[in-house]
Amino acid sequence: MPDIESLLKEKRTFKPSPEFSRQANWNKRTTNEYRKLGAKNPTRFWAKMARENVEWFTPWKKVLDWKPPFAKWFVGAKTNVSYNCLDRHLEGENAWRRNKAAIIWEGEPGDSRVLTYAELHREVCRFANVLKARGVKKGDRVCLYMPMIPELAIAMLACSRIGAPHSIVFGGFSAEALADRINDAQAKLVVTADGGYRKGTAFALKTTVDAALEKTPCVETTIVVKRTGEPVAFRSGRDLWWHEVMADASTRCPAAKLDAEHPLFILYTSGTTGNPKGILHTTGGYLTHVTTTFKAIFDIKDEDVYWCTADIGWITGHSYVVYGPLSNGATTVMYEGTPTHPGPDRWWSLIEKWGISIFYTAPTAIRTFIRLGDELPKAHDLSSLRLLGTVGEPINPEAWMWYHRVIGRRRCPIVDTWWQTETGGIMISAIPGAVETKPGSATLPFPGIHADIFDEEGKAVKGEGGGFLVVTHPWPGMLRGIWGDKKRYKETYWGKYKDTYFAGDGAHRDKAGYFWIMGRIDDVMNISGHRIGTMEVESALVSSPDVAEAAVVGRPDEITGTAIVAFVSPKDTAKPGPDLVDRLKRHVAQEIGAIARPAEIRFTNALPKTRSGKIMRRLLRDIASGREVAGDTSTLEDFSVLARLRESEED
Ligand code: WT7
Predict the structure, then answer these.
(1) How many angstroms is it from 300 CA to the middle of ligand 1?
(2) Residue of the nearest CA to atom 3 in ligand 1?
(3) Which of 152, 172, 353, 499 is most buried as measured by Cβ atoms within 10 A of its Cβ?
(4) Which pLDDT score is estimated for 632?
């Protein structure tokens, strides 16, 4: 979390260059006009965007139906996301896009594939027919557990084509985590691959699926893409090869005319309890939000080659690798592997090789590359770049400046985009041809987005000041609920303030009205731009036979933003020591996935608690952030004194 003092001392500003503004999709004039309209009449603004940027089979009867906290956008309208991403680029005046690259894909070993819009359309239709043939009907959930290969995008677009909501589970999640998500969504079909490539080696996915399916009676079929060629077990009647079922599938499959509020996908994200939440997004509003923001913020032109480095397993990949770019008819780049394989300059050679002009990545990646030195990017021709973006966590001004100087060569505007899995699309960001930027600030809410800062009592902070980030008016890409849990939806997002969305982030607004996001204020950690709940890691730890009790906190980390520190009180039978540390780290990775692996495990006799039994996280955070004593990970700490000192304060 950036320190507020240093952020508020940040005085550097960067005006859009006249050359950029002149060619921008949204210049100062249009942006100001939209800002005014969006402030006064958000529904009219979004209706205008929906008409201009999305194709509808049937118009809406009402733009917004808002019965807090339940929103319906474009009521009565019919559309299809897959149609907007594909078919509309093949017809009429857009027909020239048939042979434009839709997806440029590069595998980690260096193999590549380019799919034109016409080809992608054919593949999507074929896979949609495969799904139908396996009994997948409108409304049925399909789970995608895949590496970053074109088939993942094809499967998503096939699902949305027939109205079968997808639930994508990031390939780094464990069998346990996968099974929970499959069961929660009651998915009837799983699409996976034998494996994928990371860090130069093949990792298995099908094996993990097999383990998960031991616990998921709802799954009838799995479809497996052959990617690595590693041997996999096949269960006859259940498991099918992608290439075999695709071979004779028809390339014709009309897009279903779906209600604007038809579920598009579920995506699980961590919250403050041990159970992840299935965030539900629907069709028309989400499509309007991502299409509009992509066009305005990434300033997309038909000549651009756009690359967002996020994995499709996260919301950034859903909205800004696949749906936003394709619905704009853009060329989107997908890269399968690790940033530093086979060499630490892989990303820069990708930019050079494909002539990438718009590049969107995360602060944690930027910090990794800073550490690797300026020589690597400097050795590559990055002159194709014209616009840069960041997302996922607050970016410290120094990382922003490096990005600006070394990657953008001082020519490229930077858009720092704040949003969440729940918001569906970008909420706060600069418009690159219109808004002056400041290193470390996400700048201003997007037109039509009513973001604000509230104090503890729910009063809006006027002018300069800090507090909780909220959204006071519904927006089209907003989550429609938590799958199967209305109560949690109401409590988590709408329980703190009346009819106002509570984001869970702290924020500060400066005199000019610019937003400076300070990070999570709840028990959710942001690890390399990914959300992990402290409770989730705690429940994984206590599921080990060696652990009596565990408390997990985050501490600042130079590269990943936050690192996980676990305070563990072992059972009497356990032997605290380096072996147990290793075992517990592996256990968490197995229960949740590698991203949740604690950086540090510290043993303690007892955890500091308040009289009412609440773990004193603030205290643990202080201790975790304090200077580390080398090799001290296995010493037993006695918090009782400290705990007594803090008791009155926390209770
Ligand atoms: C949380 C959402 C949708 C983006 C990928 C992460 C943090 C996101 C920024 C930013 C400061 C940011 C927030 C937010 N965050 N973007 N530009 N500046 N913080 O999605 O996993 O749903 O996490 O990421 O804390 O609440 P997510």
Answers:
(1) 22
(2) 420
(3) 152
(4) 44
